[in-house]
Each structure stands twice: as C-alpha cells, then as structure tokens.
C-alpha cells in the first residue's frame, strides 16, 4: 500500500508520461497510460484494502476482512478522513459480535470522522443504538434510532428499526 500522497504523485508522473506519449504521436499508448493514472486517482479516494475488507465482510468472512484491514498500519496518516471513518466503521461492525465496548469506541469514532453514504452512517448509528440498548441507556438509544431513521432515506433499515423499537418497549 502506498501513502495517500504518493498515490497522487504517481498519478501526476504517469499523466506526464501519458502526455509525452500523446506528443510523440502514440495515441493508444497515451490513452492506456492515462487509464493507469486514473487507477492511482481512484485508489486515492477508495483505499484498496478497505474495498477488499468490504468484499470479505459481504461474504461474512470476518477473519478475512480483519486480515485486509491489518495491512493498514497507520490509518490516520495513510488514509483520508472518510477512509479512516470507514476503517473504524468496519472494525466496529466486526467487533460488535464479540466486544461491544470496543465496537462502540470504533463506531463513535467512525461517526465523528464521517462516512460518505447516508445509509452507512445510519447503519453505524443503528449499531450504536443497539449497543446503548444493551447497556440500558434507553434515552441515548432512542435518540440514535431516530437519527438512523432520518438518515435511512431508502428504507433499507426500516425492519431493523421496528424490531429495535419493539425490543426497547420490553426494557
């Protein structure tokens, strides 16, 4: 994994190489090299290890996702702010199965750093609401659930929110 600034420097160098190829009259080489520069720019905005961890998480392969996230040594230096939010979000989701105190720490940090998509932020807040409900903090859980409901514009988490409201009535 390259540092985020090295990716931009590589993209600039490869773009310069592409311009040189265009200038030499090698149009197809220039286009191909320009696509390579686009890959570096894409990987600046979407970290490759976080993408691979998401793929492993979709398969319910938690050890595999943990392995890919383990390749990121210093998240605050190597990742952009949103990527660091997703790094913490993934850690929080994986730890929610075993250690809810650590999970809560990671999810709160992810919410603080911000997530790109509103449904991811809604999922993080819903997870935090579930943790607060487990720890008998009803007011905080209600507040987080309402925020998650506002953020869930497509209604993807509607059933989970209804289920948590029913469980909260039992507390």
Task: Tell me what you see in this structure.
With 171 residues, the protein is mainly alpha-helical. It folds into two domains: 45 residues, no CATH class; 125 residues, Serine Threonine Protein Phosphatase 5, Tetratricopeptide repeat, CATH 1.25.40. The protein is built from ten helices and no strands. Helix 1 packs antiparallel against helix 2. The longest helix has 21 residues. The radius of gyration is 20 Å and the shape is elongated.
Q: Share of helix among residues?
A: over 70%
CATH class category of the largest domain = Mainly Alpha
CATH superfamily of the largest domain: Tetratricopeptide repeat domain
Largest sheet: none
CATH architecture of the largest domain: Alpha Horseshoe
Query: How many independent structural domains?
Result: 2
> What is the molecular shape?
elongated
Distance from N terminus to C terminus (CA atoms, Å) equals 47 Å
Number of helices: 10
CATH topology of the largest domain: Serine Threonine Protein Phosphatase 5, Tetratricopeptide repeat
- Proportion of residues in extended strands: under 5%
Q: Total number of β-strand segments? A: 0
Mean pLDDT across all residues, rounded?
Answer: 88
Output the helix-strand order. HHHHHHHHHH
List low-confidence stretches: none
**What does the radius of gyration come to?**
20 Å
Structural class by helix and strand composition: mainly alpha
């Amino acid at each position: 994994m390259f540092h985020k600034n090295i990716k931009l420097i590589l993209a600039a160098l490869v773009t310069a190489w592409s311009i040189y190829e265009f200038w030499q009259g090698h149009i197809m080489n220039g286009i191909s090299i320009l696509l390579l520069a686009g890959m570096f720019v894409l990987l600046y905005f979407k970290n490759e290890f976080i993408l691979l961890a998401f793929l492993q998480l979709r398969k319910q392969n938690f050890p595999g996702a943990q392995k890919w996230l383990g390749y990121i040594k210093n998240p605050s230096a190597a990742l952009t702010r949103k990527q660091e939010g997703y790094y913490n979000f993934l850690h929080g989701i994986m730890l929610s199965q075993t250690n809810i105190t650590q999970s809560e720490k990671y999810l709160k940090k992810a919410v603080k750093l911000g997530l790109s998509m509103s449904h991811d932020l809604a999922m993080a807040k819903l997870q935090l609401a579930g943790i607060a409900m487990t720890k008998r903090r009803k007011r905080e859980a209600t507040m987080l659930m309402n925020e998650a409901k506002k953020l869930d514009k497509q209604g993807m988490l509607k059933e989970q929110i209804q289920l948590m409201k029913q469980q909260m009535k039992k507390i």
